[in-house]
Amino acid sequence: MRHQRLRFGRGFRVLFEHRRVQAAQMVLAPGASEGGEGNRHRGADQWLYVVSGNGVAIVAGRRQRLAPGSLLLVERGEEHEILNTGRTPLRTVNFYAPPAYTGAGNERPAGRPR
To answer: What are the DSSP calls for 39-104, one per residue?
Structure first.
């Protein structure tokens, strides 16, 4: 078993991982965005859960409003961007299967889970 309490500081932070899945948290300030043109995970699916705040996800050219309780699946290879459209920080918990990032937050090459 592994446990970690989320503290939602700033930016993106990998929390921990297992062979097949990785957990991370992300905080976007009002007006900020993450991703955009060319941003895609070639080797992992991403599940994004909105803890607090409001925003918009643009995935493969389609827009989806985000609010607390929203669960979004970004499939591997889909270009995507997350924007904070609210007045408070947008806080999300993200799961990547298989792991998509190193502990330092750098994206792993496709097909290289560890």
So the answer is: ---SS-EEEEEEEE--EEEEETTEEEEE-TT-EEEE-TT--EEEEE-SSS-EEEEEEEES--B-TT
- pLDDT at 19 (0 to 100): 85
CA distance 29 to 32: 5
For residue 12, the number of C-alpha atoms closer than 13 Å in the C-beta half-sphere is 18
CB atoms within 10 A of CB 86: 17
DSSP assignment, residue 29? -
**Residue 105 DSSP class:** S
In which band, very low, low, confident or very high, does the pLDDT at 104 lie, cut at 50, 70 and 90?
confident
